[in-house]
Amino acid sequence: MDLNGKHIVLGLSGGIACYKAAELCRALIKEGATVQVVMTEAAAQFITPVTMQALSNRPVYGSQWDPREPNNMAHINLSRGADAILIAPCSADFMAKLLHGRADDLLSLMCLARPLERVPLLIAPAMNREMWAHPATQRTMAQLRADGTTLLGVGRGEQACGESGDGRMLEPQELLQDVIAFFQPKSLAGQHLLVSAGPTFEAIDPVRGITNLSSGKMGFAIARAAQEAGATVTLVAGPVALATPRGVHRINVVSALEMMEACVQQADQATVFVATAAVADWRPDTAANQKIKKDGSGQVPHLGFVENPDILATLAQSPRGASGELFCVGFAAESHDLLAHATAKRARKQVPLLVGNIGPATFGQDDNALLLVDAHGATEIPRNSKLALARLLVANIAKRIAQQSA
Ligand code: C5P
User: Which residue out of 310, 350, 370 has the highest number of ligand 1 atoms within 8 Å of its CB and is therefore the one to mutate?
Assistant: First the structure.
């Protein structure tokens, strides 16, 4: 669970998005956090404290005069033990209060009284699109950011008022991902990762083709872990139906040639290339324009193949790859003799790091085990979820880059 041991004060200010705070509260708890809910009077117009108490399994606080606190200092007591204060939804009015350091209700008082260096403040704005676009709101946001507040952004779409535009509160699952990412170490800050993921599909004709069983899950997990670690991430994805990780720029491709073109184009800006894609080794030498018909004669079509370019080797052996300016990491999916094959592949591709895994044991699975092979030897990373492995791999890559530039 990604929020094990974290204590989060979830603050609700007034807005229709309060209904999403119930789901968010559950999601935080499911990830292992403990949640203390604090609501403004306006928030209680939209959702009852009873609901939030039942979901958080703790009494909800709403007033700075709450007699349940022996010292009558709820604003101090509630904020001291928090790993973060998350205001979701954060109304335009509440943002303006934070801006001015107003403290006339428990939630704003608590935000002002929190130890700045120890208790981060995250806000998830929610408001009508005109309120969002108003210069006053934009000015407030810029100042809140300068004051050290983490702004989680807003969604776009239909609004409760019937209008459509920016200003919706992010969905609970999106906020959850952002909170999890917030707590991850920023080991790749300033780096730009390019990740290739998934299979490629090589057309035979407009309705048929050859592909493989790669699910793309490992590559998507690496893209997410790198984004959590503070990197800018571009994900070049073959045909898979996976959701794009938050904050990741995704480029969809189909064939190996398209993947090659996209990767070469993106590599100029990248500082790290992680090639997890299972690129088809060969493609049909000609893709028919029309469906190849079965004519009943029993004749089968004869396909010829040509080899696809090796994307990883091309980038690793490019001037930026060879100099280490673009740190290249390859993957090897093998069925046996992992160490020997991975070692040979690392040498052949000329990459500093090659990650081996057993193909049949990983394709489509949510977990995996890795073998990291570099110039000095091999290190095993034992079986774990792909996301956990991706985080370890990202930390490992960050260490190597730091050593390289030291
Ligand atoms: O040669 P093999 O396919 O086993 O090598 C696997 C590694 O090379 C992976 O990192 C894969 O993404 C990359 N690769 C590539 N382009 C190819 C074939 C493999 O980038 N055409």
Answer: 310
Residues 138, 235 within the same domain: no
Q: What is the pLDDT of residues 208-241, one digit of tens each?
A: 999 998 999 999 999 999 999 999 999 999 999 9
Beta-carbon contacts of 78 under 8 Å, excluding residues fewer than 6 positions away, are 9, 36, 38, 61, 110
Q: What is the per-residue DSSP string for 29-40?
A: HHTT-EEEEEE-
- The domain tally of the chain equals 2
Q: Is residue 292 part of a domain?
A: no
201 and 130, same structural domain? Answer: no
Where does ligand 1 bind, in terms of residues with CB under 6 Å?
Answer: 196, 256, 275-277, 279, 308, 310-312, 330-332, 345
Q: Do 172 and 98 share a structural domain?
A: yes
Task: Note if the bond before 135 is cis, omega within 30 degrees.
Answer: no
pLDDT value of position 405? 82
pLDDT of residue 333: 87
Tokens 């990459």 belong to 351
Query: Which residues are marked as active site?
Result: 161
Tell me the DSSP string of 144-158.
Answer: HHHTTPEE---EEEE
276 and 252 co-located in one domain: yes
Q: At what angle do helices 217-228 and 386-405 cross, to 10 degrees?
A: 50
List of residues 6+ apart from 204 with CB closer than 8 A: 210, 284, 287, 288, 292, 303
Whole-angstrom distance, CA of residue 256 vs CA of residue 13 = 50
C-alpha of residue 311 to centroid of ligand 1, in Å: 7
For residue 275, the cross-strand partners are 196, 330
Span 103-125, average pLDDT: 97
Q: Identify the domain containing residue 117 by its residue range.
A: 7-183
Q: How far apart are CA 211 and CA 280, in angstroms?
A: 7
| d(CA 210, ligand 1 centre) in Å | 16
* Cα–Cα nearest to 396, from 345, 354, 341: 354
* ∠ CA 262-265-271, rounded to 5°: 105
Q: Are residues 133 and 240 in the same domain?
A: no
Q: Output the domain CATH number for residue 230.
A: 3.40.50.10300
Tell whether 362 is covered by a domain: yes
Q: Do 303 and 283 contact (CB within 8 A), yes or no?
A: no
CATH number for the domain spanning 128: value is: 3.40.50.1950
- pTM of the full structure: 0.93
